[in-house]
């Protein structure tokens, strides 16, 4: 069972942003930028190229909705997406980040975030998502 499956099933806590029958989205605990969200399929597939098409479609549909909410919640200039697949190589995940410049997606910009700050940004994103 992957780390992300444990999050999806509630064995590991998270600040959930969105869930449907195929996907699950939650805040990254080491965000690159405010509101950095991960969206994952509810199946354990490690590589993007191996994901069934219905999951690919749903992930990107939901990433767009979540991205719009992140934009409104944070006031960022745009939303960036990143797939690199090395942090949790056994479960595909798409990073959704509000960005103001290309350096915002730099791996070296991530930092551990407090639960208090995660809860604050979660509330703002959810307010604009619903």
* Structural classification: alpha+beta
N-to-C order of helices and strands = HEEEHEEH
CATH class: Alpha Beta
Residue runs with pLDDT of under 50 for 5 or more positions: none
In short:
With about 130 residues, this protein is of the alpha+beta class.
Structural account:
With 130 residues, the chain is of the alpha+beta class. The chain has a single domain, classed as HIT-like (HIT family, subunit A, 2-Layer Sandwich). 33% of the residues lie in helices and 19% in strands. It contains three helices and five strands; from the N terminus they run αβββαββα. A five-stranded antiparallel β-sheet has the order 1-2-3-5-4. A hairpin with a 3-residue loop joins β1 (16-19) and β2 (23-27). α2 crosses α3 (115-129). The model has no long low-confidence stretch (mean pLDDT 92).
Task: Present the secondary structure layout.
Layout lengths: L2 H6 L7 E4 L3 E5 L9 E5 L11 H22 L3 E5 L11 E6 L15 H15 L1
Antiparallel strand pairs: 1-2, 2-3, 3-5, 4-5
Helix pairs in contact: 2-3
Features:
single chain; 130 residues; alpha+beta; HIT family, subunit A; 5-stranded antiparallel β-sheet; 3 helices
């Amino acid at each position: 069972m992957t780390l992300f499956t444990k999050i999806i099933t509630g064995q590991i806590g998270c600040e959930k942003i969105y869930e449907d029958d195929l996907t699950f989205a939650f805040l990254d605990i080491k965000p690159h930028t405010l509101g950095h969200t991960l969206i994952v399929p509810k199946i354990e597939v490690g590589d993007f190229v191996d994901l069934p098409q219905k999951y690919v479609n749903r992930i990107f549909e939901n990433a767009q909705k979540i991205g719009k909410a992140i934009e409104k919640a944070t006031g960022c200039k745009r939303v960036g997406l990143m797939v690199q697949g090395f942090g949790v190589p056994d479960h595909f995940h798409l990073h959704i980040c509000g960005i103001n410049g290309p350096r915002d997606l730099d791996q070296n910009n991530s930092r551990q975030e407090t639960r208090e700050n995660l809860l604050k940004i979660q509330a703002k994103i959810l307010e604009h998502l619903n």
